[in-house]
Amino acid sequence: MTPIVPIAVTGMGAISAIGNNVTENFRSLVDSKHGIAPIRQLDTWHRERLLAGEIHMDNAELYDRLQLSREAAYTRSTLLALMATKEAIETAAFKPGDGYRTGLISATTVGGMDATERYYDDYLVSEKNRSFIQTHPCGYAAEQMGKYFGVSDFITTISTACSSAANAIMLGARMIRAGQLDRAIVGGTDCLSRFTINGFNSLMIYTDGHCKPFDENRNGLNLGEAAAYLVLEAPEVARKRMKSPIAYLTGYGNANDAFHQTASSDNGEGAYLAMRRALEVSGLNPRDIDYVNAHGTATPNNDLAEGNALLRIYGSASAIPPFSSTKAFTGHTLAAAGAIEAVFSILALQHQVVFPNLNFSQPIASLGIVPQTALTEQRIDHVLSNSFGFGGNCSTLLFSKDHD
Amino acid sequence: MTKPIYIHGSGCVSVQPTFEAGYFFDHVTSYTQNPVPALDPDYKAFIPALQLRRMNKSMRMAIFASRMAMQQAGITTVDAIITGSGLGCLRDSERFVEALRTDEGSLLNPTPFIQSTHNMAAAALALSLGCKGYNMTYVNNANSFESALLDAMIYLTEHPAATILLGGVDELGERTTQFWDLANYLKRDDATIPTPLIEQATPGEIATEGATFFVASQEPGDHTFGKIRAVETRLEVDAPEIFISGFLQRNGIEAETLDAVVLGYNGDSRYDEIYRTLGSSLFANLPQIAFKHVVGEYDTVVAAALFLALGIFQRQHVPQRLLLNHSSIPPILRRILIYTQRRGQNHSVILVEK
C-alpha cells in the first residue's frame, strides 16, 4: 500500500478530570497529578463511594461559560463537547463558513442518556423537562454542536463503544483524503452517567482503588468523563491559510477482534490488526514508533490482550518502545478516550516527553513488559495511540511530528 | 473522489413481509396501530436457537437481513461491516435504565447493559461471521444509514478488491415510543398503514422498526442489482430544491434524466408538504414513488428505500401501491433518485443506477 498523504492537525481542545483545557491537562500530566476522586456531582447511589475522573464544573457553570440560554436543552456530554470544540477551533484559528468544506464528526456512547435516566418517569407526568426528550439520540449532540459553531457541510456521529473517538478522527482523515472535505472537526465526548457507572459495575470491572494499568496486580478500571476534539485539515489548506500544523495524522487502523461481546481475545488479535493496519497506512515500521499511548484500561483482560498484541508487533519485550497508559490520570473516558489520548499523543510530540503510567509497580508476569513510570524527555517523532472497545471494536491512530 | 459501489444482494426485515421470497410490495399488510413492530422472519433459519435466545431484536434483524443479502450474493464472508442505527438497541437500554432506577447499588444483570451499546448489531455480525475487518457504526439520527453508505463508498475506493456488508437497523422501545409521543412526533388518531398521504395526511409519524442490509463491492458481478453513485446529507437546508439540484449538478445529471424518484412521504401533514412542493416542481414530470407509508418511520428506514429502488431495477416494475402520480413509467428503469428528510431535518439524497 502506498503511504497516505498525511493529514495536518491544526488545532485541539480538551476537557477532562485533569484540566479544563489543553494547557491544564498538560500541566497535570507533567506534574503526575491525577483527577481520580470519589464521585461528588453526579446524583447516584455511588456518590462518595466510587472513584472516578469527574470534571469539576457543574452543568450550570458550563452553560454560563458557553453563554447558553438556560431555557435550551443541552446535556452534559454536549456541554463538554462544546467546551473542547471551542478551544480546538480557536487554536486552529479559523471561522466556520470561510469557504473551506468543513465537517463535524463526533463520537459518543452516552448521548443524552444522563437526561433520559434523570427524567425517565418525570417526562410522563410533567411537561417541565420534556424539551430534553429530543436530546436522547446519540446524534443529537453533534447536530447541536454544528448549529452552535455554524458547521453544516457534513455532520455525523460514531458510536463504537470505547474506540468511538479514534474512529471519528479516522473518518475525518479519510474524508479529507477522499476529497469529500477540506477540514474536519473530529473527536468525542462522554459524561459520567448512572447508566454507564452501573453498567460497568454490573460487569464487576471496577478497581476498589486507583487503577494500575499494566501491573500484575491490576484489578479493574476507574471511569472518567471528558471531551476532546482535533481540527484536521488537508495540508494544502493549512498551507494556504499559513497555519503551521501542530502535528500530522499519518496512520490509522480499524479492526474487529470477533472474539466475544465484551472480552478481548488473549492474543489481542483485534488490537494487533488495528496497530498493523495503522503502520501499513503510514508506511512506517514498528521501530519508527517512539511512544505508544496505550489503551491500558487496567482490567486484567484488556492489558493482557494489548500487551500480547504489542509483543506480536515488536517480537520481544525489549523491542517495544516506551509506552504508557494515561487512564490513571483521567479515568477511562469511553467514547472520548481516543480523542483525549490523541491530544496527549500530540502533546508528547510537541513537548518531546513520554507521560508516566501511574500506579505501576510489578510487570505482568506472563508478558514481562514495563511501561514508562516517570515523565521522560526524549526524541519523539511518531506516536501510536490505541483505543479498544466492547463489541471487539479496535482502532489505532498514528501521529507524527513531521511528515517526511 | 469516491467511485460507485455495486450491490449484489439485499435483505430487508420490516413491517411488511419483505423477507419472503418473491415479495415485492404488490400486497401490503395493513395495520391500525402506532407503533408497529417489524414482522419476525424465521430467525432460526440463520441463527442457532441458543444464540437467538440471547439476542435483542436489533441483533436478530441485522443478522437475518445480512445473511439474506449474503445468500443472494452467493458469499459466506465479507471484508468489512459498516452499519447505521439512529437509536441502537433501545429495548436493552430501557431495561437497564429501569433496573438501575429501582436497584442501583445492588449487582444488576449486565446483559442488558452489554447489549445496549449502539455497536452491538455490527459487533454481533462480526462475531457471527468471524469478520476481523473494518467495523463501524454510525448514530446520526435519520441520516445514520447515509453515513454508513458514504463510509462504504470511501472504504471501497480505498480497498477496491473488498466485499462488504452495509446496512441499517433500528428497533422500537416501549418507553422511548411514549417519549416520542410526548414530544408530538407520533400520530395519535387514524394511525394506519398504509398511511394516507398528501390531502389525507394527518399530523405525526407511525413509529416502526426494521433492518436492511446489502452486500457491496466496487466491481459489477453476476447478480448485481445496481449501483449507488452518490449520497449527500444536510442537517438543515434552506430549500430542498436547491440542495437536490446542487446534488444533481455535482453529479453531472439533469433531473429529466431520472426515471423515477423515491420520496420520503410518511403521512405527517406537517412535513409532507416538502415532498409535494418538489413533486410539482423539480420532479413534476417523473414517476413519484413513496415507501414510508407502507414500512413506517424509523431512523434508518431509507435503507428500505434503497432496497425498493434496487428491486425496481431488477424487476423493471413499480409496485402500484407505491406509485403516487400517473406520470408514465419509462419502458426501462435505470436511474432513481431517493430523497428523504425527517421532521424537516436530516435531508438526504441517494443516486441509484441499474
Automatic annotation (TrEMBL), chain A:
TM regions (residue ranges): none
GO cellular component assignments: cytosol
SUPFAM superfamilies xref list: Thiolase-like
InterPro entries: Beta-ketoacyl_synthase (IPR000794), Ketoacyl_synth_C (IPR014031), Ketoacyl_synth_N (IPR014030), PKS_Beta-ketoAc_synthase_dom (IPR020841), Thiolase-like (IPR016039)
Matching SMART domains: PKS_KS
The Ketosynthase family 3 (KS3) domain, residue ranges: 4-401
PROSITE patterns named among the record's database cross-references: KS3_2
Native source organism of the sequence: Parapedobacter indicus
GO terms for MF: 3-oxoacyl-[acyl-carrier-protein] synthase activity
GO BP annotations listed: fatty acid biosynthetic process
Family: Belongs to the thiolase-like superfamily. Beta-ketoacyl-ACP synthases family.
Keyword presence, Transferase: yes
Pfam families registered for this protein in UniProt: ketoacyl-synt (PF00109), Ketoacyl-synt_C (PF02801)
Protein name per the record: 3-oxoacyl-[acyl-carrier-protein] synthase-1
Alphabetized Gene3D superfamilies for the sequence: 3.40.47.10
Keywords: Transferase
PANTHER family for the chain: BETA-KETOACYL SYNTHASE (PTHR11712:SF320), POLYKETIDE SYNTHASE-RELATED (PTHR11712)
UniProtKB/TrEMBL annotation, chain B:
GO cellular component: cytosol
Domain of life according to the entry: Bacteria
The Beta-ketoacyl synthase-like N-terminal domain, residue ranges: 43-170
Signal peptide (residue range): none
SUPFAM superfamilies to which the protein is assigned, alphabetical: Thiolase-like
Record bears the keyword Transferase: yes
MF terms in GO: 3-oxoacyl-[acyl-carrier-protein] synthase activity
UniProt keywords, alphabetically: Transferase
UniProt xrefs under Gene3D superfamilies: 3.40.47.10
GO biological process: fatty acid biosynthetic process
Protein name as catalogued: Beta-ketoacyl synthase, N-terminal domain
Organism field: Parapedobacter indicus
Lineage: Bacteria, Pseudomonadati, Bacteroidota, Sphingobacteriia, Sphingobacteriales
